[in-house]
TrEMBL record:
Gene3D superfamilies: NAD(P)-binding Rossmann-like Domain. The keyword Chaperone does not apply. Keywords: Oxidoreductase. The lineage of its organism: Bacteria, Pseudomonadati, Pseudomonadota, Alphaproteobacteria, Rhodobacterales. It comes from the Bacteria. Pfam families: adh_short_C2 (PF13561). It comes from Agaricicola taiwanensis. The keyword Oxidoreductase applies. Belongs to the short-chain dehydrogenases/reductases (SDR) family. This is Oxidoreductase. Signal peptide: none annotated.
C-alpha cells in the first residue's frame, strides 16, 4: 500500500476527481478528511470509503470562508494525529466574459481558485514543518500552462496556482515539504459540464454533445476519467515522488504536447 499509515485532506472531495482521489488514497492505506461544501455528498463519500474498509471523515463548509479554509488543517490533525498530505483540489470555472465582466464574479473566481487555496496551504506549513515534512498537491489545469481564449480569468487564476506552488516548492524544499500540481485536461465531471455550458458563451447546444466534442479535441480523442487524475495525484503525493517538487504534471491526453 502506497500511503500506508499516512493521513491528510482533500478539498472538493465529494465529487469528480477529488472523490476519485479520496477513494484511491484510502484504498492505498491513507486516512482522508473529505472537505466539501456539499454536506450530503461529503458524508456519502465517507460512507463509501468506510464500506471499503478505509478511514475517513467529512468536513463540510465553504472554502471561500477564510476561517474554514484554514481550520480544516487543524481538524484533520485533531482527528488523525498527523498530516502527511494536503490536496488543494477546489476550483471554480469563472465566467468567459471580459468587457462586461461583473467584478463580483471576478472576485468569486479568485477567492475559490486562489484565496482559499492560499489559506489552506498557509495553515499547512507549520504542522508539516514541525513533523519534518509533507506533501502538498495543487490542482491547476491545462489552462494553467496554455492560455484559454474562452477563459482568461480562469487562465489567470490557474497560472496563479502554479506560481504559488512553484514559489512554495522552492521556499520549503529544505524543510521536506514538497509542492506539486496536476494540470488536468478536460475530465468527465460536473465541472466540465458547467464549463462547456457556460451561458455567456452562447452555446445553446446539448451539454452531453458539447462534452463529447470537447474530448474529441484532445490528441487521445476523449475526456479524461476522474480516476486517471487521481492516479497521477497518488504518485505525486506518495513517497515514490520523494525527489520531485515544483512540478506541474499535465494529465491531459496529450493536449499540451
Ligand atoms: N473537470 C475538468 O474538466 C477540469 C479540468 C481542469 C481542471 N479542473 C479543476 O479540477 C477541480 C475540480 O474539478 P472536478 O471536475 O473534480 O469538480 P466537480 O465538479 O466534480 O466537483 C467540484 C466539487 O467542489 C465542491 N466545491 C465547489 N466550490 C466549493 C467551495 N467554495 N467550498 C467547498 N467545496 C466546493 C463542490 O461541492 C463539488 O463537490 C477544480 O480545481 C477545477 O478547476 C477541472
Amino acid at each position: 500500500m502506497r500511503l500506508q499509515g499516512k493521513a491528510g485532506l482533500i478539498t472538493a472531495a465529494a465529487s469528480g476527481m477529488g472523490l476519485a482521489g479520496a477513494l484511491r488514497f484510502a484504498e492505498e492505506g491513507a486516512s482522508v478528511a473529505v472537505v466539501d461544501r456539499d454536506h450530503g455528498a461529503a458524508e456519502a463519500a465517507v460512507e463509501q470509503i468506510r464500506a471499503r474498509g478505509g478511514k475517513a471523515f467529512a468536513l463540510s463548509g465553504d472554502l471561500r470562508d477564510d476561517g474554514f479554509a484554514r481550520g480544516i488543517v487543524e481538524e484533520t490533525l485533531k482527528s488523525f494525529g498527523r498530516l502527511d498530505f494536503v490536496w488543494n483540489h477546489v476550483g471554480h470555472p469563472a465566467s468567459a466574459q471580459v468587457e462586461d465582466e461583473d467584478m463580483e464574479n471576478f472576485a468569486l473566481a479568485l477567492d475559490i481558485n486562489l484565496r482559499s487555496v492560499f489559506n489552506t496551504t498557509a495553515a499547512t506549513i507549520r504542522p508539516m514543518r514541525e513533523a519534518g515534512g509533507g506533501s502538498i498537491l495543487f490542482t491547476s489545469s491545462t489552462s494553467g500552462l496554455v492560455a484559454s481564449a474562452n477563459s482568461p480569468i480562469y487562465t489567470a487564476a490557474k497560472f496563479g496556482v502554479l506560481g504559488l506552488m512553484r514559489g512554495l516548492a522552492r521556499r520549503f524544499a529544505k524543510e521536506g515539504i514538497r509542492c506539486n500540481a496536476v494540470c488536468p485536461g478536460p475530465v468527465d465531471t460536473p465541472m466540465l459540464r458547467s464549463f462547456v455550458a457556460r451561458p455567456d458563451q452562447n452555446l445553446a447546444n446539448d451539454v452531453e454533445d458539447l462534452v463529447a466534442k470537447r474530448g474529441a479535441l484532445t490528441p487521445m480523442g476523449r475526456n479524461g476519467k476522474p480516476h486517471e487524475i487521481a492516479n497521477a495525484a497518488l504518485f505525486l503525493i506518495s513517497d515514490e515522488a520523494s525527489f520531485i517538487t515544483g512540478v506541474a504534471l499535465p494529465v491531459d491526453g496529450g493536449s499540451t504536447a
